[in-house]
Design brief:
Elements: H1 2-23, E1 25-39, H2 48-53, E2 55-70, E3 75-76, H3 81-85, E4 86-99, H4 113-120, E5 121-136, H5 141-145, E6 151-170, E7 194-210, E8 213-224, E9 247-259
Antiparallel strand pairs: 1-2, 1-9, 2-3, 2-4, 4-5, 5-6, 6-7, 7-8, 8-9
């Protein structure tokens, strides 16, 4: 994971310097961190304990192209609706979540082998994401940039390329044996990683801390185009409740600094 962060950060900085020299855009860099709720094939759908239990953390580096301000002349660009209401966000992020089965089928009062096998299953996934989002600010970016204490709500949409590394195991022993694995999950686990595309949407707001820095809160939804990100994928033709691909919700808090 550190290797992906370093390589991509160099690419982002190189791209930023090139864009700055050619177009005069200004730049913003930041750090985001917060809890992640991973929605997967572990646990029950719409179950509070599943949603609360299968949570992890996420951390990311972000970069913005600010179209309203020109870094090469220290001045504003000619005003258009686009450059006063949109920013382009690049991101390199990492999230990790430990996964368990929750819900009525793992309650201690249930003594069948199936229930014991569910209680014994353990999982985790670590995902590195790289991508871009276009952020829309309904209020003026120019007005926000010069007013300390002001809020700037936004919404964004984009895509990311992700590299995932899942793990699936059981405290009863090796998986894919009749003694350890529920029939539903027989030959439906994997401990090898892969790559996948995803779509990302978020809503949030910035708070103007100083002229050169902002605080940000952001609530994100990310949908992966694979059901293997968590390392678990029961046959969707048989088990309809597990037909959805993996996705997550990430609430993050960030600090953003403006580069002149």
């Amino acid at each position: 994971m550190p290797k992906y962060f370093i390589i991509t950060l160099l690419l982002i900085l190189g791209y930023s310097n090139k864009a700055d020299a050619q177009y005069g855009f200004s730049h913003e860099v930041g750090l985001i961190v917060g809890p992640v709720a991973f929605q997967s094939d572990y646990g029950e759908r719409h179950d509070f304990n599943t949603n609360a239990g299968n949570t992890g953390y996420g951390i990311g580096l972000i970069h913005y192209l600010n179209f309203s301000y020109k870094a090469d002349c220290n001045c504003y660009r000619p005003e258009t609706y686009f450059n006063d209401h949109f920013k382009l966000r690049s991101e390199l992020s990492y999230n990790k979540t430990e996964l368990r089965h929750f819900g009525e089928w793992v309650e201690g009062s249930r003594k069948k082998l199936f229930n014991k096998q569910l209680r014994a299953m353990r999982g985790s996934t670590a995902v590195t994401n790289l991508g871009m989002q276009l952020e829309y600010f309904p209020l003026s970016i120019r007005d926000f940039s010069v007013t300390e204490g002001k809020f700037a709500p936004f919404a964004s949409f984009g895509g990311q390329f992700s590299i995932y590394d899942p793990s699936a195991s059981s405290t009863l022993g090796k998986l894919d044996t009749p003694a350890t694995t529920p029939v539903k999950y027989y030959n439906a686990t994997q401990n090898s990683g892969g790559s996948v595309w995803s779509v990302v949407g978020s809503v949030g707001t910035r708070y103007k801390l100083t002229i050169m820095s902002d605080l940000m809160v952001d609530l994100r939804w990310q949908y992966y185009f694979s059901n293997w990100v968590d390392g678990l994928n029961p046959n969707p033709a048989v088990y309809k409740e597990n037909k959805a691909n993996d996705w997550l919700v990430w609430f993050n808090v960030g600090y953003i600094y403006y580069i002149e």
